[in-house]
Structure to design on (231 residues):
């Protein structure tokens, strides 16, 4: 069972729609503000009812539509406890389970490093890794309480211990790729395969990436589920 994967070309962000054929309940992970109408249209076309809107972390490169989608549909919002997203209905912790349809649940995995509160979500044989584990890469660790040491632990002791057949669905990709597997990333990921903790920390320290263009706008907005503070 695969999710429906949607894409924002401006921020290279993936949004995921999870549902079971024959059932109406659905979950959206990491929606983007400029696409809220698109996402509602997908729900309508598929005859789905949105039950949860989940964030993997407070993104720095786009504004979420989580609050708006919840207002329109009545869905509940969920966000990692450590990300400062106070208005979320569910403050999620490691090991939580989110039941969204009969027999269907997401398992919450705390995977800090890109941000201190970052979460991944495991559903069946799919893991939604946010900015922790990307395809042939990983999220940066130089702002938002990032830690290369914590990220190395998250990936090697939590994500890489999942079944190698588990499909990896990241929050972003910048090279036209859509999905990977835990087994492929363990063997081939350019930042992690064969890399020890010391080498990884040094690699991440020397990336010298530019500051995200929307950082100062996106993070405060996303801490309020993308809604203005008087909404």
């Amino acid at each position: 069972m695969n999710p429906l994967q949607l894409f924002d070309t401006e921020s290279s962000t993936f949004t995921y729609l999870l549902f079971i054929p024959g059932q109406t309940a659905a979950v959206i992970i990491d929606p983007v503000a400029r696409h809220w109408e698109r996402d509602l249209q997908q729900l309508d076309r598929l005859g789905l009812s949105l039950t949860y809107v989940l964030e993997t972390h407070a993104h720095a490169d786009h504004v979420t539509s989580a609050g708006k989608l919840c207002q329109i549909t009545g869905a509940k919002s969920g966000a990692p406890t450590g990300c400062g997203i106070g208005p979320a209905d569910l403050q999620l912790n490691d090991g939580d389970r989110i039941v969204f349809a009969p027999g269907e649940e997401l398992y919450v995995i705390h995977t800090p490093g890109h941000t201190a509160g970052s979460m991944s979500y495991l559903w069946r044989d799919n893991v939604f890794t946010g900015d922790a584990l990307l395809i042939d890469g990983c999220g940066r660790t130089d702002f938002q309480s990032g830690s290369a040491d914590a990220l190395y632990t998250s990936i090697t002791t939590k994500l890489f211990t999942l079944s190698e057949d588990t499909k990896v669905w990241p929050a972003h990709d910048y090279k036209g790729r859509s999905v990977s597997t835990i087994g492929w990333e363990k063997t081939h990921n350019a930042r992690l395969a064969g890399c020890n903790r010391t080498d990884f920390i040094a690699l991440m320290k020397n990336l010298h990436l530019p500051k995200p263009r929307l950082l100062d706008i996106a993070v405060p907005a996303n801490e309020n589920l993308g809604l203005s503070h008087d909404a």
About this structure: The domain at 4-211 is CATH 3.60.15.10 (Metallo-beta-lactamase; Chain A). The helical segments are 36-46, 66-73, 148-159, 182-188, 197-205, 215-222. The chain has a mean pLDDT of 96.
